[in-house]
């Protein structure tokens, strides 16, 4: 088992959707796509927000050049 697999299993077990930090975010379905160091990232929840108008800078998840979703440490209502 790799460190990535251990982290993904922990996040799933504890109800998280991904990670956020250092001006980016990622979900479990596309975990750490940038291959950068994620040692400072925090467990995060998915927040759908296509224009990211209410999204903190550190939680953006990019699809090419366009922000498509947001991952934040704040738990969304109803989760």
The total count of helices amounts to: 1
Give me the count of strands: 5
- How would you describe the shape? globular
Give the tally of structural domains. Answer: 1
Task: Give the averaged pLDDT, no decimals.
Answer: 78
Question: Main sheet?
Answer: 5 strands, antiparallel
Radius of gyration: 12 Å
- Listing every helix as H and every strand as E from the N terminus to the C terminus, the arrangement reads HEEEEE
Residue stretches low in confidence (pLDDT < 50, at least 5 long) are none
**Euclidean distance between termini CA atoms:** 29 Å
Helical percent range? Answer: 10-25%
Report the sheet-strand fraction: 25-35%
Strand order of the largest sheet: 2-1-3-5-4
- Oligomeric state, counting identical vs distinct chains: single chain
Could you walk me through the main structural features you see in this protein, from its secondary elements to its overall organization?
The chain has 79 residues and is α+β, with helices and mostly antiparallel strands. Helix content is 14%, strand content 33%. The longest helix is centred in the N-terminal third of the chain and has 11 residues, at 3-13. The chain is globular, with a radius of gyration of 12 Å.
């Amino acid at each position: 088992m790799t460190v990535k697999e251990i982290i993904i299993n922990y996040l799933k077990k504890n109800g998280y959707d991904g990670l956020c930090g250092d001006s980016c975010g990622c979900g479990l379905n596309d975990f750490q796509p940038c291959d950068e160091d994620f040692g400072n990232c925090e467990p995060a929840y998915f927040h759908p927000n296509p224009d990211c108008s209410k999204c903190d800078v550190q939680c953006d998840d990019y699809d090419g050049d366009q922000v498509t979703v947001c991952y934040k440490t704040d738990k969304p209502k109803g989760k």
